[in-house]
Batch of 3 targets.
Target 1
Amino acid sequence: MTPAVAYMRCSGVAAEFGDTFDRQQVSVQKYAQANDIEIVFEYRDAGVSGRLELEHRAGLAACLERVENNGVKLVLVESADRLARDSVVSEYIIRQFQKVGCKVIAASGGVDLTLGDETNPTAKMIRQILAVVAEFDRNVTTIKLRVARERLRAKNGKCEGRKAYGTKDELEAQVIKTITLYAKLWDAKRIAQHLNDSKIPTRMGKRWHAATVSKILRRQK
C-alpha cells in the first residue's frame, strides 16, 4: 500500500465542534480505501482561515515537514479549498509541496492538485478554477443559511408541534450530517457510541442509543 498523510482544516469554532473534520475524514478514508493507500497520520488546523499562508498554520507546516523529511510523498485533502481558499495562497502552498516532490490529492474528485507547473498552464488553470468554484459554493451556502435563519425567525411564536430532530437549529443539522456520514462506515450502535464519547447530547440532554440513530437514518432515506 502507498503511505500517505491527511490534512484537514476548519475555519471556525462552530465548525470545529460540528461535522467538518468528520466529513473530511470520511472523504479521505474512502479515497484511500479505493486506491490502496494507507493513511499513516492526520494533520489538522482548527479555527484557521484558508486565506492564511503556510507559516500561520501549525498543522500544515508540520505536514510539510513530515513529507520533506520522513519519506511519505502523498498528502490527501478532502478538496482544494481545505488546502487554501485564496488562489494566490493555494498556489504558494502547492509550490512548497512540489519542491519536495510530494503529491497533494483532492479526495472528493481525485484531482492531483500538484500536477504541473509554469510549463503546464492547463493544470494550473484547473487548480485555480477549482478554488473559484469552491468559493462560489461557499457563498451560495452562506446565503441559503441566512435565508433559512430569517424564515425561522419569522415563524417564532407560532405553534407548529414538535419538530423532527435536525430541523430545530443548526447544531441539530450538524449532528444529522455527522450521523449520515458515519453511516457509510459504522452501524447505528457504533455511531451512538461516538456521539456519546464526543459528549454530544440528544435534544433532551440524554445519551444516544442505537434505536434513536436508526430512526434518524430511516427518516433520511
Note: The chain is about 55% helix and 10% strand.
Target 2
Amino acid sequence: MVRTLSIEAPAHGRVLVRDVDSPRGLLVGFHGYAETAEAQLGRLTAVPGTDSWTLVAAQGLNRFYRGRTQDVVAGWMTRQDRDDAIRDNVAYVDNVIEATRTGSGPIVFAAFSQGVAMAFRAAVLGRARAGGVVAVGGDIPPELLADSASSFPRVLLIRGATDDWYTAKKLDADMSALRARGEDPEAFTHDGGHEWTGEVAMAAGNFLARWDGLKRR
C-alpha cells in the first residue's frame, strides 16, 4: 500500500523592499506566473503616489527555471496539496508583513494574474487583514466568496479589454458576488490584454489617492 503524506517544512521566500521615511502605508505586491519579485516591484514603483509608501514585492515560494534561458522565476501554487499550499503561502505573507511594516498606516495588496488569488487569500485569511486589494488580470478565489464568514477589504478589479484569461464575464461575476455580500467593489477596464499597463498604474494610483479619510474595514 502506498500512502501520501504532506510533511511541513520551513521555507525561505525572497522579498524586495523599498523603504521610505514616515511611510503613508504598506503596499505589498504579488507577481504573476513565471515572474519574479523584480517584475512586481517595478510595477508598484510606476504607480503614481507610491513614493510615499513602503513597497514590498514578495516572490512566490515555488521557484523554477524558465525554458532555455534558465532564468529563475516563480509561481504561487498548483492544485496539488492545494489546501496545504494556501496555508503555507498565507503564513509566508503574514511573516512578510511583520518583517516590513512600520507605523500604523494601511496595508494594501496589489497583484497581477496568478498573484491575484494570493493577494485575496492573504487579505481575507491573514493575521493582518489588508485595507485594500488592487487585483489586475485575475479572479477572486471561489472558496472565499462561498464562505459567508469571509470579510473583504476595499477592492479594485482591473482587466484588459482584450484579456482572454480574466474575461468580462469573470469580472462581472466577481463584481456581482461581492455586491451580493454587501461589498462595494470598484472596476476598471483598460485598453490592453493580459498585462499591467500605464493605464493600470494610473487606476491603482487613483485608488491609493482616495485613501485619505477612509477607514480600514
Note: The domain at 15-209 is CATH 3.40.50.1820 (Rossmann fold).
Target 3
Amino acid sequence: MYKLLIIGFLSILLFSCEKPVEYSPVPQITFSELSLLDTVEAELDNPIKRVKVQFDFIDGDGDLGLSKADTFGDFGPGKKYYYNLTFSVFEKKNDKWILNEKTKPYFRFQNISKQSTSNKVLKGYMSVDVDFLKNIGFADTIRLDFFIYDRALHKSNVASTPEIYLYE
C-alpha cells in the first residue's frame, strides 16, 4: 500500500508539471481599443483631436523598450531603430485607403523588460496618444497602422485600428 501511494504521488507530481508555453522572440501585437478626445495642445494652444490607441503585446524573449541610454549604434538619433513604435496614417478618399506620406507619428517607449525572473515572456497592453491638429488637411476618415521593434531589432506584425472619424 505504501509503494502504491508513493507511485501515485510521483505520477501526480510528474504529470502536473506542464512545460511553460513558449512564444516567438518576434513581438506580436493586437489592436484592442480606441478613444477620441477633442482637446488643446499644451504648447501652442491649437485645437487637436487626440486618438488614444490601446494594443496588446506579447514578446517571447522579453526585450521590449529602450532605456534613455540606448542612443548609440542602431538606436541613435536619426537611425531606423531610434523609435520603437511607428504609426502610418491612411486617409479614406473615394472609398480607397491612401497613405499620408507627410504624417508618420513615431514614439519611443521605455524598457519594460522583467529584470529578476527566469521567464522572460512579456505580455501586456500599451496605450498611446496620437494627436492630429484640427482643420489641417486630413480627410474625415483615417485609419492607423502600427508596429513595434524590440531591442533585437525584430519587427512585430502590423496591426490596424478601425476607421476613425476625425471630424463629425
Note: The helical segments are 2-16.
